[in-house]
């Protein structure tokens, strides 16, 4: 029987953490997945090998046993003795029961990424850890539970106005047209789930996820549920106080400018920001940054008034 170096298959060190192993597995699984490499037998073989490697190395008991075997295997190799003479008998499961119902192999992580498209395990794995099911007629058989279909993800761009009010999209799926509702308050990175619209499977179809990107807006900048914009205020309103109109996503609002408002000051309009996802009756705030507009084309008399004011302020 051929020894399999699971650490080498995943490209990780022997002391790698569970998280490092999972990250390496996901990266390779995406690279060699059959959907990405249709008809490529070598990619299919590599995909099965990395599934097997992560199955062992992310399971505490299996990894412990495998590491013990690996230590003895390395010593055997270093001694220069033929690999064919290595004694496998103390390591093989041999189909012997391990508690009620025999040993059990868990298929973890595969459903999350690829809807259960794993593959058969090697004789090396079966010999060490056993398969699912029992021996029938001297031949090891393994029955796999029905697998749920693969989830799909589709990018979708919407405007800030659509994210504010909520919107809908019509999608074509084969002969069917699907209407999906986008709730108010979604942001870039939000995922809208369409249950059962993914790939079919024995344990039910997977889901379709629409990954949202909210397009930049020419007026408003969004930070979480708050909005930010600028408003021009003339010098006289900034000094003496006054009122300006500010456009929001629901229409124009009259905003009071306090006397002696400094350029760059942000005026908060409570509840005029984005709806909070899942809480449509609650909204963030709108912050209006004041941009003071200085007068131009001054007359000689006006310049004299400003000079007089400057002298008074200096004195």
Secondary-structure blueprint:
Blueprint: H1 6-10, H2 18-32, H3 41-57, H4 60-78, H5 110-114, H6 123-129, E1 135-136, E2 139-140, E3 152-158, H7 160-165, E4 167-173, E5 176-182, E6 191-194, E7 208-214, E8 221-223, E9 226-234, H8 235-240, E10 242-248, E11 251-257, E12 266-269, E13 275-276, E14 279-283, E15 286-293, H9 300-314
Parallel strand pairs: 3-7, 9-15
Antiparallel strand pairs: 1-2, 4-5, 6-7, 8-9, 10-11, 12-15, 13-14
Helix pairs in contact: 2-3
Q: How does this structure look, described?
A:
This protein has 315 residues and is an alpha+beta fold. The chain has three domains: 6-140, DnaJ domain (Helix Hairpins), CATH 1.10.287.110; 152-214, HSP40/DNAj peptide-binding domain, CATH 2.60.260; 221-293, HSP40/DNAj peptide-binding domain (Sandwich). The chain is 30% helix and 26% strand. The chain contains nine helices and 15 strands. A four-stranded mixed β-sheet has the order 8-9-15-12.
Features:
3-stranded mixed beta sheet, HSP40/DNAj peptide-binding domain, 9 helices, alpha+beta, 4-stranded mixed beta sheet, 15 strands, Helix Hairpins, 30% helix, 315 residues, 3 domains
